[in-house]
Design goal:
globular; about 280 residues; 10 helices; 6-stranded mixed beta sheet; alpha/beta; two-stranded parallel sheet; homodimer
Chain lengths: ~280, ~280
């Protein structure tokens, strides 16, 4: 089914802002997916179609559903991907570098004239195999997003606050650690913020939850424009809520259809679950 | 060093209320510990000293410090313990059944005339070896407290909300799942509540954190007396904060000395870390 970091991200961020997608697909990419993305308002000017197959990932979740085991990965057209950004998109201020080879992330960032907020995601594979490239990129981003396991592996710290401090010292002013069913931890020099996940027993498919979270988070920030403590906290809450919809059904079944009203209603419910 | 569920519980609960301890110690129990407990205001009328050795536990924490590995356990006088409750204590309204053989917990509860709130804790050992006795006890308690692992094992559910619902169906009106560094999840028919832990990089010794949590939680409830949604939420926050002090140093080093003012100050800080 249709998936991928950028798509999950876009499904949530589109509720707040215009989303410009930079990505590569293969010749096999179904036309109906293009139509779907366009219909959702995603701007596809910088979507490249190359010779070869579209990236494909297959995974399974067991037990607490917090981590997927990869069954197969076919890189396809991703192997030779050089991101293209159209001239009129180079002035975009809010950049999410979804998980991919850090050299590709760096290349994309190099196209941008003067971004206001750059958020970087990665994964264990790059932490292991391209650690230096990743850490070099850290100097150029504002927020590094990681799951708890990635934060621990990269920093060598098992305590997450200590891991966040270590990551902060590598460059990014803000660190965002996603803990799956346990919520998120946000760290900056100015404040620490911790939010549980939306408590639910309806967990069907966590694939893309982290990217949906990032989409809600950045979407909200790009809408309010001012990056301050109270907006960051609210953005984290919107990200949490966006992710809670994503996991309730397979793929994009939920997030393709949800609205800002759905987010706001659940956010009000969520408040009652966490405020004292 | 001095430890044990009841003692850790008492150190936090004493900040809110008079704590009556029901327990057994051996002939080897140092007099200075008795003096210490008395000096902290703990009422020792129902503390029995028996022939034999005091219960002793030795454990180690590794990695994320969330679970201890037991190095050794010496039951000592606990093997033949029959809880004694003095006449004037039998009217006490707030009862915490700290982790011990469920038959002993049941025996103690049998002494009480008309408790208002009974909170039950247990552990994997009893879940495995005395499951039926434990589940029978469920019918007589108001709140069952478990850590995430215990909740999963007992219910057979990996999702914690589903686990809480299963546990609720066994009897207790309220379920409290402690998730260590990830905070707590509270479940009742009326509302769900989720609170992260106090974010800290100072984790020296988590032993007794769960009991300290329970002590702060129940201490606050017994002080305000009214068991309603808003008091329960505040009690969970006080429990969280009490536990955050416990883990900052070995044994009782922190909780023997902290004050209600310390709790309130950190609670105010905590609010800034979780409210949006």
């Amino acid at each position: 089914m249709l998936g991928g970091s950028a798509v999950h991200f876009a499904m949530a961020a589109r509720l707040f802002t215009k989303v410009n997608l930079v990505a590569v697909i293969g010749r096999d990419f179904p036309k109906k997916y293009i139509a779907f993305l366009r219909q959702k308002g995603i701007i596809l000017t910088s979507l490249i179609q190359s010779c070869g197959k579209t990236f494909k990932w297959e995974g399974a979740y067991r037990g607490d559903m917090n981590t997927a085991s990869t069954l197969s990965t076919e890189l396809g057209v991703l192997t030779a991907f050089r991101p293209f950004v159209s001239q009129e998109q180079r002035g975009i201020k809010y950049i999410f570098l979804a998980n991919i080879d850090p050299d590709i992330q760096r290349c994309l960032l190099g196209h941008m004239r003067s971004p206001k907020l750059v958020v970087l995601d990665s994964m264990n594979y790059w932490i292991r195999h391209k650690r230096r490239a990743l850490l070099r990129l850290f100097k150029k981003v504002d927020i590094y997003v990681a799951n708890d396991q990635e934060a621990r592996v990269l920093s060598g710290e098992s305590n997450l606050v200590r891991a966040a401090k270590w990551l902060r010292r590598q460059g990014p002013g803000m660190i965002l650690i996603k803990k799956g069913e346990h919520g998120v931890l946000f760290y900056s020099d100015k404040f620490i913020f911790s939010l549980p996940a939306y408590p639910t027993d309806k967990v069907i498919d966590p694939t893309g939850a982290g990217d949906t979270f990032a989409g809600g988070f950045m979407g909200y920030l790009s809408k309010v424009e001012k990056i301050n403590e109270s907006n960051l906290k609210k953005a984290l809450a919107f990200g949490t809520i966006a992710a809670s919809f994503n996991i309730e059904d397979f793929g994009l079944n939920k997030t393709a259809a949800f609205t800002i009203k759905d987010l706001e209603n659940r956010l009000a419910e969520f408040r009652k679950c966490v405020l004292f």
